[in-house]
Amino acid sequence: MANDLPTTQWVLTLSCIDGPGIVHAISGAIVAAGGNIAESQQFASHDTGRFFMRLQVEAVAQPDTFEGRFEQALAPVTERYHMTWRLDTVGRPVRTLILASTATHCVNDLLYRRRGGQLPIEVPLILSNHETVRDIAEFYDVPFEHRAIAGADDKAAFEARVLAAVDELDIELVVLARYMQILSPGLCEALAGKAINIHHSFLPGFKGANPYKQAHQRGVKLIGATAHFVTTDLDEGPIIEQDTIRVDHSYSVRELTQLGQDVEARVLRHAVRSFAENRVLADGDRTIIF
Amino acid sequence: MANDLPTTQWVLTLSCIDGPGIVHAISGAIVAAGGNIAESQQFASHDTGRFFMRLQVEAVAQPDTFEGRFEQALAPVTERYHMTWRLDTVGRPVRTLILASTATHCVNDLLYRRRGGQLPIEVPLILSNHETVRDIAEFYDVPFEHRAIAGADDKAAFEARVLAAVDELDIELVVLARYMQILSPGLCEALAGKAINIHHSFLPGFKGANPYKQAHQRGVKLIGATAHFVTTDLDEGPIIEQDTIRVDHSYSVRELTQLGQDVEARVLRHAVRSFAENRVLADGDRTIIF
Amino acid sequence: MANDLPTTQWVLTLSCIDGPGIVHAISGAIVAAGGNIAESQQFASHDTGRFFMRLQVEAVAQPDTFEGRFEQALAPVTERYHMTWRLDTVGRPVRTLILASTATHCVNDLLYRRRGGQLPIEVPLILSNHETVRDIAEFYDVPFEHRAIAGADDKAAFEARVLAAVDELDIELVVLARYMQILSPGLCEALAGKAINIHHSFLPGFKGANPYKQAHQRGVKLIGATAHFVTTDLDEGPIIEQDTIRVDHSYSVRELTQLGQDVEARVLRHAVRSFAENRVLADGDRTIIF
Amino acid sequence: MANDLPTTQWVLTLSCIDGPGIVHAISGAIVAAGGNIAESQQFASHDTGRFFMRLQVEAVAQPDTFEGRFEQALAPVTERYHMTWRLDTVGRPVRTLILASTATHCVNDLLYRRRGGQLPIEVPLILSNHETVRDIAEFYDVPFEHRAIAGADDKAAFEARVLAAVDELDIELVVLARYMQILSPGLCEALAGKAINIHHSFLPGFKGANPYKQAHQRGVKLIGATAHFVTTDLDEGPIIEQDTIRVDHSYSVRELTQLGQDVEARVLRHAVRSFAENRVLADGDRTIIF
């Protein structure tokens, strides 16, 4: 900025049907509100005909003023283009509910990085149907709540608690950190676009129980993981992040599982960071990651 | 070696039911035949209870003598352990038949590296149902034969030609370098353990036509390829090599396809090299790669 | 585009000192000239205080008209911001001079992909101080010129020929495809920003002759390659692309060299593609790759 | 094993000057002692003329008996070949002293995986010149000792404490988990072959302070890390493990540093696991990793 006043960083994401003049209109509103574009990415999807944009905007640090002015300047633009948009401050911790089960690797990875300031999330609650992650949660000063799931009633109660927590705690993101229960269609819909799951992935894919055992039996040379949005179509929601790691015939099922957990933790962390930084936009069955 | 006589390098691969004393017996036969173990890898498969070994052996360069002596010394061992084994000279070019269709990337990659001495294969024939790779074959001085496949009869004739070529040309390895026809069960069986195919792989897997288009539509973040032995179970034979490459939402179907071809060529080359160096051993539905 | 007239794709790259209103001004000129932004990336460098942008613009296919209108609309903007800019058509083959020596792997890789339409370059000439790549050049119908370099005079003559060729053939990019001669400071300066070199890279770096031998002796677990702009500071110009590949103690110097060549070819290809697609912008000692 | 008695897994590593008959002699001693080779890798170094081997041996679970018998059977072999060897039980936790400073990422990674049984080490002590890792140590029930280093005397005292701890606690491995002090030559020598350091690596290498800042300024596309044995030649000891991660121009110095820490933790963990599983053998300035 030309002057030396303290500045605030804003992140603006938007999407609308593609057409001429969008960038000009948006940038005009930003200029009118006294902002300066520090970073920008856009993408026009040939599949859906939609236009997507993410901007980081610097403005003199009078947040309310900029936000107000910007909304005023943007109003005719969003109306004209039937635009979906969202303005946020850069680095604001996203309120995140973690669902866990017995496995600790994803929870540990997320909480360790959150504590170190490497992941812009805050975690007002971990809900789990097992006790295994309790001590990690306590070490990282995160509230932990255990609810056993022994049958269908328990599961319904657990899901009701999830929804209540989302509401009471202003949750913006639900992370299924190896939460091994299948969500009901109702919960999937209620959390549409804000629940991220992590699951193992293999080339080729293996269906059914114990995929690492199947991977071992087929002698795969790569194991991987996929982080995706939760939808009612199990493990088939829009993909946010994927990665693989090299293995060979000498790896036991146990070693494959451990390496797989390393990849899972890494992929989930990456996806959560992208979401928390407002980098993930939905484009039908796919995601745009800026 | 202690003396300065010229030496020959041998590669010995073997497998048998696991049990005590195998390595001692094998190494005894090598010592008795005057060889020295330069390199060795072994693996005991818990899945099948079988033992696998690959050795590189150095012997004074009187090949016939060593081979003869070694076979004699090994006879009681192989008999005792019901051993499957194979003795070859290191670096001997493996006689390879390439089956091609319209795509050139795999053929070009294999022939370029063969010419540079980077791939121990010789290619007495390329058979293709299209003309596209003819000029590449000619540039690299490899015989090329075109046989169109317009119907079931053509296909049967093509396959008969494959079998005849395998026989007449002492073919040890058949490489399906993007040969887009499904092999008949009979041909699969006739080529069992010596035909390698390459196909695209994705997380998750996509069935049906135009997988790169499906990959684009689902917004995958990785595309990959798998080289595997041909079996009657289409694209599901024992895996030899796999790799992936990172992509994002901005890649068009055409760009995904091109990058996919880069990975396919790399993975196939790697698999062919492993096979030609006697590093691939079958262990039921999986491979041991030494 | 709203109408169904055939369109042309343009790529606009620009840089200037960062400040408010740039995107708005640029997008205004595009709108005024009747273009639609299909893709856009920008970056504000904190290191140099400069702003960089790359846009792909779609306009009704009357190229001269759009280009003329756009230049007119842009003139006040470029003047106001002291902007460096360049407008090109998407996919136009970049006129590329290749300098070669004995190694064939990079030349082969570039020419194979150019022929397949995977690399938007045209190659009016390969200049080499050895004959090794002649047959590859001929196969791919690329003019080849051999000039031996036996001493300082030959080298000066070779470099004079390079400069003459750049001038006569309207060369936009010079690729040193394992051209093993050190360029004179004068030639480096004459080719500033348009000559790309590829060299091997290791962790840690090795100075002096036969780096693969040194890499072997130190037991590195990764070998790599770096593509960079040529500057007078040998092998230290702005980096365009890098990659590594995994190796282990069992690799001979010869095997390391071959794998190194695979990485070199891949990294150089990637860098050339980025350059030819107008994705590489210089920011002092670094590059912005869009 | 033929019978159903409980078995113990042994790991044998050895090296000697290469020559004929070694494998036969070793395998003979194993057979004589009643063991069965479950896994084996060997390597003959052309650089040093030495032979290296690692075997996993299964024997009926009377450890003392097998160990005693094996030593007896092996004695003439080790004498004949002037062999260096070591027999250990598979999975035995290696007694590890961790040296730390302010950074927590490596310590956290090692202790988390140790607790989950994924890393066969036990950590009787963490010594640090800062307090930062104390709470992590306490959470994982590992003794922590803080000793500030304000000057040369403190440093000498710290190093004396390291040597005393190594002695008192039967330490087999010292891990410098981002311990930012340069070890004295005396300590390097005292810990030769059993101290592992982790440091960042780049292509090209950067000397001096704040390497991530230099990496940013030069616009590197990869950042990496190297785990190596500590020698008096700073950061130049035999390499055990290396890895890299992809970055681009948009990463700030802070983001590069965080990603660099992820790679450091992963590479160090891998190196520690290899060491603890008796997979690392020294071959002059390089390592053999089985």
UniProtKB/TrEMBL annotation, chains A, B, C, D:
Keyword Hydrolase belongs to the record: yes
CDD domains cross-referenced by the UniProt entry: ACT_F4HF-DF
InterPro entries: ACT-like_dom_sf, ACT_dom, Formyl_transf_N, Formyl_transf_N_sf, PurU, PurU_ACT
Ranges where the ACT domain occurs: 11-92
Active site: D235
One GO-annotated biological process of the protein: one-carbon metabolic process
GO molecular function, one term: formyltetrahydrofolate deformylase activity
Known EC number: 3.5.1.10
Catalytic activity: (6R)-10-formyltetrahydrofolate + H2O = (6S)-5,6,7,8-tetrahydrofolate + formate + H(+)
Keywords: Hydrolase, One-carbon metabolism, Purine biosynthesis
Coiled-coil stretches: none
Pathway entry: Purine metabolism; IMP biosynthesis via de novo pathway; formate from 10-formyl-5,6,7,8-tetrahydrofolate: step 1/1
One Pfam family it belongs to: Formyl_trans_N
Function: Catalyzes the hydrolysis of 10-formyltetrahydrofolate (formyl-FH4) to formate and tetrahydrofolate (FH4).
Matches recorded under PANTHER family: FORMYLTETRAHYDROFOLATE DEFORMYLASE, FORMYLTETRAHYDROFOLATE DEFORMYLASE 2, MITOCHONDRIAL
Family to which the UniProt record says this protein belongs: Belongs to the PurU family.
HAMAP family assigned to the protein according to its UniProt record, in alphabetical order: PurU
Record-given protein name: Formyltetrahydrofolate deformylase
Organism: Leucobacter triazinivorans
